[in-house]
Amino acid sequence: MTDYDRTDQDFGNIVSLDHVNLTVPDQQMSTLFHIVGMGHTRDPYMTVGLENMWVNIGREQFHLPTRDSAQVLRGRIGLVTPDVDELEERLDRMASRFEGTQFAVEREGRNLDVTGPWGNRFRCHPADGERLGGANIGLEYLIFNVPAGTAPGIARFYGQVMGATTDLVERRGSPTARVQAGRHQAMLFREDPDESRPYDNHHIAVYIADFSGPHKALQEMDLVTEESNASQYRFVNITDPETGETLYELEHEVRSMVHPMYGRELVNRNPVQSLQVYRRGADALMVG
After folding, report:
1. How far apart are CA 286 and CA 52, in angstroms?
2. In contact, 266 and 285? CB cutoff 8 Å
3. Fewer Cβ atoms within 10 Å of its own Cβ: the N or the C terminal residue of the chain?
C-alpha cells in the first residue's frame, strides 16, 4: 500500500483569493492598461457603467472603481499569463500611449515585470502547467511589504484567528509570513524596512470555509469593521493575537462559501484574436 503524506494537500480555512480592489482616477486609461495591454477581460455582466470596472483574470478579478486618486498596493501582484512573449510585444507596442504615467515593462528571465500607469506592480509568469494548479491565467499571489519584525505576528494572526495554513519563510533575504489562500494561491507578507507608504484603503476579498469561527475571534478582538450582509463581513487591522499590537492594515472582504458569487463562472477572452489573424472558435480563453 502506498504511504501518502495526506498533509500535502491541506490548505487551511481560506478557500480562495477572489479579487483585489484598487481605485483608479481614469477608466479610459484603466481600460487601455488592463484590457487592451494586459489582455484581461472586462466582466460583461457586472458593473458595466463608467463608475467601476470588474476585470476577469481566470477565476479571479480586479475591481477598479473610479475615484479622484489611485490606490496602490504596497508590494507586488503575481499573475499567470498564457504567453509572456506575446504580452511583452503587445505592451511594447502600446508604450507611447502611457507617456507621462508610471508605466514600465522589464523582462526578468521567463517573467515580465509590469508597472501600471499609477504605480501598481505586477509580475507576470508564463503558464507552464505547474503554476496555479496548471491554469493558464489567473491571480496566483500577492506580496505585501510589511514593517520589520512583523512577519511572525502576522503568521500567528492568520493561523490562530483566520484558521489559515501559514509558515515563516525567507524571501530574498527577508523574513516572510506565507499564508495559503486556496489550493494554489498565497499571500506573502515580506518584511521591508524601506516601505514607508501609508495605507490608502485598497482591499482584497477572500472566501473561507469556517465563516463563523474567525468572525467570533475578530469580534472578541474588536476588529470587525463592517457587517456587510449574512454572507460577508470586513476587517482592516492585522493584529498579533499574543500582544494585541496592530502589525499591518489591509481591508479584507471576507465571504462565506454560501455567498451568491462563490464559484461564479467568469468569461475570459483570447487577447490574441484580431481581424488580421482571426481564428474561428478561438474567441474564448480556456482557463485550464
Report:
1. 26
2. no
3. N
Q: Which residue has the cell 492568520?
A: 158
Alpha helix segments (H runs only) across the chain: 27-31, 84-94, 151-156, 212-220
For residues 71 and 23, the answer to whether their CB atoms sit within 8 Å is: yes
DSSP 188-245: EEEE-TT--PPP---EEEEEES--HHHHHHHHHTT-EEEEEETTEEEEEEEE-TTT--
Give the global pTM. 0.95
C-alpha cell at 159: 493561523
The bridge status of strand 246-256 relative to strand 203-208 is: parallel
Decide if 207 contacts 14 (C-beta within 8 A): yes
Residue type, 81: T
Given a contact cutoff of 8 angstroms between Cβ atoms, the answer to whether 154 and 177 are in contact is yes
